[in-house]
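Here is one chain, start to finish.
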Amino acid sequence: MEQENTYHIRKMRDNDIPQVLEIDLDAFPTQWPHPTNSSFHHELRNKLAHYIVVYRNHSGGGNNPAQNNSLWDRTTSYIKYLFEHDRFFGPITANDKERLAGMAGIWMMVDEAHVVTIGVRKSQRNQGLGEWLLINIIDMAIRLGAKVVTLEVRLSNVTAQKLYEKYGFSIAGTRRKYYSDNGEDAYIMSTEDINSDEYKTSFMQLRADHRQRWSHCCDTN
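Its structure:
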């Protein structure tokens, strides 16, 4: 049985979009323009785009096939369970009892994974969720065959820059007047080769440290 205070990560689905739009507006209130229903529908059908969400299930369980009594119920429930679970990120279907806390996405361009967004609701920050999303998209980039991960970050967002630096990103350049809301510049940040033994060793240690620190709220198994 899933605990109500435990967060999980899975792929983003169409019926996540209303909550994802809420998260985007909450996490990036000054951003302009904001994504729309149609833009996210398009993104989820874009073969280059890969999005995940972090959620908390308020249903109090019900996903365990073994809880059914008859052989027929156990068999049909297990088949349904297999169809509804992604092998990397768990459940792939959303329901109205799932409260999304954050989202993240990358675009795969040849051997580069470009981070297009990482956002967490303000009310659910300081629980390691933003870092957990970053861990998962780096892991996804490795599995998708990326060599490097890149992103843009505001010059004023020192907190985010420190998190990215922790995971091996360094400043590779500047995009002038990148943010349309206030004309602020953006740093371009990039990792070294994420397939190198050195990077993977460091990344695995950082992931283990996060798991140890936040295991009480994040389903990091």
